[in-house]
From TrEMBL:
SMART domains: HATPase_c (SM00387). One of its GO terms (cellular component) is plasma membrane. It comes from Pseudonocardia sulfidoxydans NBRC 16205. This is Histidine kinase domain-containing protein. One of its GO terms (molecular function) is kinase activity. Coiled coil: none annotated. Residues 317-407 form the Histidine kinase domain.
Length: 407
């Protein structure tokens, strides 16, 4: 169960996942406590001590009532049992410690105390159902201390050698460490699930507006580019009609040529025809040249060893490369961008490196929260295809993004 600062930092969907797993842990804890109650009752009934039987029976009955009360409390539907269920573990420990001391001190060579001491092994298992590792560690440590104290207190009456006592204590310590490790694994899994749910929620939230975003970007590209040249050409055409100036016709021709180039570039960005006609290597070269001409950086492309034919990954690799090169041109302020594509065994490796300002460690998370889903969406697509998407700092400056995909 996440603590208060963590609950403030994560979204409701992730919180719902964490609460669901925490409730399952509480349910398991209640079931195991029922086993422990039955164990205590059967021990007192069938392996009773020679003295203080009534006191032991009262403790066992009170423990059963307590376990029933905890069971009803956890059925209430509130979040309090999820946060406070660990407190019941201290009562479990207190009951077992009291009964072990009561039966071990009053009756030398008591089988009751020996049987009850085995119940201590279940306490760390109960604590392992918690999603908070520090609580599991605290309960396991307290169990070890109480077990050792009870064993030392009853050592003289049971005439037990130190070797036997320490070996029994070592087993309890080993079970406690194993339960702490199990709790860590559970928490790690829930954190991983929470991260995936968080990414999914952010992507779904942003994808609802992606069509409007793309339309706006296309409108701005056409308005600020080709449309301006067309309007200028129209103005020059009106001037040419009135004056017949040859320079006006030259300006018209230049404006129309530039308009054609910009329109062709925009259409190519929407769906690169060169990818269909000439293949991925030619499309990547055209992509880097176009971006370099716009942003003013030096572009380098290496596709040695890539097969000439089409592959099922061409579209995904091209879209990813377009996003990475576009980011380098727009945000990195790079002077050089290097793109390489190679086939390594049964994998395709795409590397885009720049010497720009670099990529912060939390860049993808920050971009998602600001409404930019480009990198995150491509990472999700790459991972969905069975590949890996990694971004790292480059020496001395810049960023290197590596994409590995199975062919």
């Amino acid at each position: 169960m996440p603590d208060a600062p963590e609950r403030a930092a994560i979204g409701p969907d992730v919180m719902r996942v964490a609460m669901d797993h925490a409730r399952r842990g509480v349910d398991l804890q209640v079931v195991l406590r029922g086993v422990l109650v039955a164990f205590v009752a059967l021990t007192v009934a069938f392996v009773p001590p020679a003295h203080d039987v009534f006191a032991c029976t009262l403790v066992a009955a009170g423990y059963a009532m307590w376990a029933l009360a905890v069971f009803l409390w956890t059925r209430g539907g509130s979040d309090a049992p999820v946060r406070l269920a660990w407190v019941a573990l201290l009562v479990d420990l207190l009951v077992l410690g009291s009964l072990t001391l009561l039966t071990g001190l009053s009756t030398p060579q008591s089988w009751t105390a020996d049987v009850l001491s085995a119940g201590f092994l279940l306490i760390p298992v109960l604590a392992a159902t918690q999603l908070r590792v520090h609580i599991c560690a605290a309960v396991a440590g307290a169990t070890l201390v109480v077990y050792l104290a009870a064993a030392i207190a009853t050592q003289e009456s049971n005439a037990e050698p130190w070797g036997s006592l320490l070996l029994r204590t070592a087993i309890v310590a080993g079970v406690g460490l194993g339960c702490i490790g199990l709790s860590r694994i559970q928490r790690s899994r829930v954190d991983t699930i929470g991260t995936l749910v968080n990414d999914r929620t952010d992507l779904l939230d942003q994808l609802t507006g992606i069509e409007e975003h793309e339309r706006r970007a296309l409108s701005e590209a056409l308005h600020d580019g080709a449309l301006q040249y067309v309007l200028a050409a129209r103005q020059d055409l009106e001037d040419a009609r009135d004056t017949g100036d040859a320079e006006s016709f030259d300006r018209i021709e230049e404006a129309l040529l530039e308009s054609s180039r910009l329109l062709r570039t925009t259409v190519s960005e929407l769906h690169p025809a060169v990818l269909d006609r000439a293949g991925l290597t030619a499309a990547l070269g055209d992509l880097v040249r176009t971006a370099a001409g716009r942003a003013g950086f030096d572009g380098e492309v290496s596709t040695d060893g890539w097969p000439d034919g089409r592959t099922p990954l061409d579209g995904l690799l091209y879209r990813t490369a377009r996003e990475l090169v576009g980011n380098a041109a727009t945000h990195a302020k790079a002077s050089t961008v290097r793109l390489s594509l190679a086939r390594e065994g049964d994998h395709a490796r795409l590397v885009v490196a720049d010497d720009g300002v670099g990529l912060p460690p939390d860049a993808m998370t920050t971009s998602l929260r600001r409404g930019h889903i480009g990198l995150a969406s491509h990472r999700v697509r790459i991972e969905a295809a069975g590949g890996t998407f990694t971004a790292a700092a480059s020496a001395p400056t810049g960023t290197v993004v590596t994409v590995d995909l199975p062919l």
